[in-house]
């Protein structure tokens, strides 16, 4: 039998790894039954001449077939298809690879629908969540990075504490005590990748499938998705000007195991939870033996007085899991945040951190530690607070000047974005699409509502763009409104 005629051999193209291509060709012929058990393979020289390749590539392909057990070598006789593959080959040859076999399960499909598109590397105004590092902060960061790399020691190359470096956790503890009134010790602090990572850990530790959980309505969509992915039973709880309405939460799901809140700067509306509402929420948590997750994602940037004391500080750390992030105070690409666990849960959270991601990066922690120890972190926050306020004011003025008939704008006291409510009956999703076509990101807030009555408006980030960029970007937004009105 002419071996060259028993299988539709394909010669490798220019981009192929030749040895891998040849290996896959022979393996395919074995799977198809064209090369049967015990059948002699062509010599490496013969196969190389037929395929038009170097003999060394054939030798490498045969070595891989031998290593994986597809073939056996017989000294002085050549290379043969392994005799003990008959059952495997029969099974493979008899299997119909229908398209349905490759269909992902329902859970995978549901997770796929929860993903959101990545922002552009060069973001367009007014993409939310962007930050700015001035020249002084960048210079300090670079010097901290160089020092960290010059002073590497064995700990940087090893498995370490899943909670994070103890020196960094002490710095975070001291910062939170001073800036947010958080009550904790360093062994309660866990370094995370950010608030979303911390929320995922809290859900894994404290929530079982079917457990009811209060979530703000409107609220941050990734929070909804994280809880849905673990099977929690979501109870959207309305928000007013004083934050989450605790009495509505009790009426909807009195037996909830957890409440997720953004009390310093409610996402997306930007309201601050009043002190009475804070105490009411903590009283409910103690009475119901439930937990409160405090997502304090942008607490550093308050523009009218000092930040309010954290929920965790008011509670004494008994029922509140506190989440914070460097991704907003420094830059999103850093991917570092922190969680403060109640003392009774600290060991469980440490174990969850270890199971999911083993440990944070030792090098990145060393850089952040140096940056904080130098005093630059606190100084950077003070400078950013002044800069972001100016950026907020520039955006507010431009909106009021160019779009007074379309938008109602109230500058927020805190945070990195503002909400501009629509004065007209236009659909905010239509405005969002028109803005995108004009090179501006203006996110429709209607998508953040669930059971609560929908308000239409636009979420506009200001923290990532200098004041001089606001007016030209608002001009593009005004053209988008005009285009949407004509449509």
Could you characterize what this model shows?
- The longest helix is centred in the last third of the chain and has 27 residues, at 376-402.
- The strands form 3 sheets. The protein has an 8-stranded mixed beta sheet with strand order 3-10-9-8-7-4-5-6, sandwiched between helices. The protein has a 4-stranded antiparallel beta sheet with strand order 11-12-14-13, covered by helices on one side. A two-stranded antiparallel ribbon has the order 1-2.
- The protein is built from 18 helices and 14 strands.
- Helix content is 44%, strand content 13%.
- The protein has 3 domains: 3-93, Winged helix-like DNA-binding domain superfamily/Winged helix DNA-binding domain (Arc Repressor Mutant, subunit A, Orthogonal Bundle); 135-374, Aspartate Aminotransferase, domain 2 (3-Layer(aba) Sandwich); 379-486, Aspartate Aminotransferase, domain 1, CATH 3.90.1150.10.
- α6 crosses α15 (362-373), α8 crosses α14 and α16 (376-402) packs across α18.
- It is of the alpha/beta class and 487 residues long.
- It has helices spanning 18-31, 44-51, 55-67, 86-93, 106-114, 135-150, 166-180, 195-206, 221-229, 246-252, 275-288, 311-315, 326-329, 346-357, 362-373, 376-402, 428-437, 470-486; strands at 71-74, 78-81, 189-192, 212-217, 233-240, 243-244, 258-261, 291-295, 320-325, 337-340, 407-409, 417-422, 443-444, 457-461.
- It is globular and about 90 Å long.
């Amino acid at each position: 039998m002419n071996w060259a005629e028993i299988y539709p051999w394909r010669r490798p193209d220019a981009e192929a790894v030749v040895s891998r291509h040849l290996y896959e060709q022979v393996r395919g012929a074995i799977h198809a039954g064209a090369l049967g058990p015990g059948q002699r393979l062509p010599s490496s020289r013969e196969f190389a001449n037929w395929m038009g390749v170097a003999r060394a590539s054939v030798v490498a392909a045969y070595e891989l077939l031998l290593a994986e057990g597809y073939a056996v070598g017989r000294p002085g006789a050549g290379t043969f298809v392994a005799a003990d593959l008959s059952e495997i080959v029969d099974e493979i040859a008899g299997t119909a690879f229908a398209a349905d076999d490759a269909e992902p399960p329902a859970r995978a499909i549901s997770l796929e629908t929860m993903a959101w598109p990545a922002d552009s590397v060069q973001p367009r105004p007014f993409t939310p969540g962007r930050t700015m590092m001035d020249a002084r902060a960048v210079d300090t960061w670079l010097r901290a990075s160089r020092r960290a790399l010059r002073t590497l020691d064995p700990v940087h190359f090893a498995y370490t504490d899943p909670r994070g470096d103890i020196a960094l956790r002490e710095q975070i503890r001291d910062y939170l005590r001073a800036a947010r009134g958080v009550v904790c010790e360093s062994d309660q602090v866990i370094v995370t990748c950010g608030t979303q990572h911390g929320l995922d850990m809290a859900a894994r530790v404290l929530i079982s499938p079917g457990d009811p959980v209060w979530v703000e309505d409107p609220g941050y969509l990734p929070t909804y998705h994280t809880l849905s992915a673990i099977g929690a039973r979501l109870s959207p709880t309305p928000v007013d000007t004083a934050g989450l309405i605790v009495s509505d939460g009790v009426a909807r799901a009195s037996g909830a195991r957890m409440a997720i809140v953004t009390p310093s700067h409610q996402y997306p509306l930007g309201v601050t939870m009043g002190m009475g509402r804070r105490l009411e929420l903590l009283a409910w948590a103690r009475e119901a033996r439930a937990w409160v997750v405090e997502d304090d994602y942008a607490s550093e940037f308050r523009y009218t007085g000092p930040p309010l004391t954290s929920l965790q500080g008011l509670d004494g750390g008994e029922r509140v899991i506190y989440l914070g992030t460097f991704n907003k105070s420094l830059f999103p690409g850093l991917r570092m945040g922190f969680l403060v666990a109640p003392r009774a849960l600290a060991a469980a959270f440490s174990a969850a951190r270890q199971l999911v991601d083993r440990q944070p990066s030792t090098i990145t922690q060393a850089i952040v530690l140096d940056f904080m120890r130098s005093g630059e972190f606190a100084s950077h926050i003070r400078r950013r607070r002044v800069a972001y306020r100016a950026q907020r004011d520039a955006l507010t003025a431009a909106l009021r000047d160019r779009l007074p008939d379309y938008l109602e704008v109230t500058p927020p006291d805190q945070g990195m974005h503002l909400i501009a409510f629509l004065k007209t009956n236009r659909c905010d999703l239509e405005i969002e699409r028109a803005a995108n076509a004009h090179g501006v990101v203006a996110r429709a807030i209607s998508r953040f509502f669930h059971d609560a009555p929908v308000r239409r408006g636009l979420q506009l980030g200001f923290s990532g763009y200098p004041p001089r960029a606001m007016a030209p970007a608002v001009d593009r937004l005004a053209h988008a409104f005009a285009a949407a009105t004509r449509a």
